[in-house]
Amino acid sequence: MDNLIIAGKTYTSRLLVGTGKYKDFTETGAAIEASGADIVTVAIRRTNIGQNADEPNLLDSVSPTKYTLLPNTAGCYTVEDAVRTLRLARELLDGHSLVKLEVLGDPRTLFPNMVETLKAAEILVKEGFDVMVYTSDDPIAAKQLEEIGCVAIMPLASLIGSGMGILNPWNLQIIIDNAKVPVLVDAGVGTASDATIALELGCDGVLMNTAIAAAQNPVLMASAMRKAVEAGREAYLAGRMAKKMYTASPSSPVEGVIASAKTV
User: Fold this and answer.
1) If you count Cβ atoms within 10 Å of the first and of the last residue's Cβ in the chain, which end, N or C, has fewer?
2) Are 90 and 127 in contact (CB under 8 A)?
3) Ramachandran category for residue 165: left, alpha or beta (phi over 0 → left; psi -120 to 50 → alpha)
4) Residues 17, 222: contact at Cβ < 8 Å?
5) Taking the complete model, does pTM exceed 0.70, yes or no?
């Protein structure tokens, strides 16, 4: 299968996974291993990656030499908080430039504040960050973020943690059709079929956390998501058959079929 390219770097997996909501770092590591993901996103404000010396360190279970870490700004509601958080991440990770920006507008729905997101993206791009950005499924906002210089656009499929799947495939398709950078579904995936649909639509990848971490068996669900993403991408590349109403066509040819004998 073809590879995913973000900010000039090649990745073999189109599944990106988070590190929150697991019972412990051991389960986190096992699920990430089963997912086959290359890129692992980390909430800097909520997860210890070295800023708290007396607490368990995620990097002991998720090695930065094996995975590409993607620091994110989960829990940030202002430009200032988001920019400060990613500057800290760059220091903790020795100049790491690939980051995920999200500036939230509402603590209940975790819907993005697009005005603040656009402002923060502009600052971070100017400071040399490679910004993957969480956004609404508004095609205009998505295009503006691309024009600012974001390296990947990440529209929600439905609300973060909802598991509702892709609720507006039409807007998502417009974003995909008009983007010149990778488009990855971020938020709302609930099960493997949701991930497959995202890739079948033409998304370059999908990022998820709760769908795996909140499953009854996270490690097994991570494995299922790995296969779902691979199947969806292959189906997209293969090109599905056209949908037709009331124009049945048998799978087997009918030419040359021996006619049934008449009943005497």
Assistant:
1) C
2) no
3) left
4) yes
5) yes
The full length of the chain comes to: 264
How far from chain centre, in Å, is Cα 247? 37
Is 189 in contact with 197 (CB distance < 8 Å)?
no
Per-residue pLDDT at 120: 98
Please give the Cα distance from 50 to 257 (Å, whole number).
73
- 119 catalytic residue (yes or no): no
Contacts of 138 (CB under 8 A, 6+ apart): 114, 171
Annotated catalytic residue, options 21, 23, 66, 100:
100
As a three-state string, the secondary structure of the chain is: CCCEEECCEEECCCEEECCCCCCCHHHHHHHHHHHCCCEEEEECCCCCCCCCCCCCCHHHCCCCCCCEEEEECCCCCCHHHHHHHHHHHHHHCCCCCEEEECCECCCCCCCECHHHHHHHHHHHHHCCCEEEEEECCCHHHHHHHHHHCCCEEEECCCCCCCCCCCCCHHHHHHHHHHCCCCEEEECCCCCHHHHHHHHHHCCCEEEECHHHHCCCCHHHHHHHHHHHHHHHHHHHHHCCCCCCCCCCCCCCCCCCCCCCCCCC
